[in-house]
Amino acid sequence: MARNFSQAIIEEKNRDATAFPWLILLTIVLNDDDGTTYRLVNNNEDITFDGNVYTRFSFELDPTKYSSRGEISTLTLKVNNINRLIQPKLEELGGGVDSAVTITVVNTRFLKDDFSEAEETFEVLSTKCDTRWVSFTLGGWSLLRRRMPLYRYIAGHCRWSVNSVECGLTGAACNRTYANCKTNANTARYGGFIGLNSAGLKIV
Questions:
Q1: 13, 28, 53, 74: which could join 38 in a potential S-S bond, CB 3.0 to 4.6 Å?
Q2: Are residues 136 and 167 in the same domain?
Q3: pTM
């Protein structure tokens, strides 16, 4: 893929020596209802990039693994687990499979520039934890692992999580039925399909 960087960034990249290091930024977005996000940088201090603060943190990226059997190539990301920052949330999510990890390479001299050309997003295929590392196996997004269709079509059950952005309620109790949605005066956001019924077969 062609990389369309500014001339200043290209010149910095080609220097034999520089006082401005290149850093790897991680953006880990978990697949929970809140989209819990961790922003980390393998550095000795926090940095701010694109309006977000990346916290100094130890992690390692192993080389990409390729297969001659037609399998999707993978790489391993190991995040320091000494303080158990991520592990408890991953355990709640059964490993956080299908979460997203974005890797961005930036130069500290040009943190206000656009580094989207040096950015790649991967899917979490599996995770494992020990006392030292949380290890993520990352791969490209595959349609073979996506649920098709995305939602189940059910008449009497709302597909939105309570108090989510789609639901729109704040601090309300809801059992995700149409009747309860009506009680909360929120039927305009009901995520079920009341036009369906339990008798017979309908194709949608």
A1: 28
A2: no
A3: 0.63
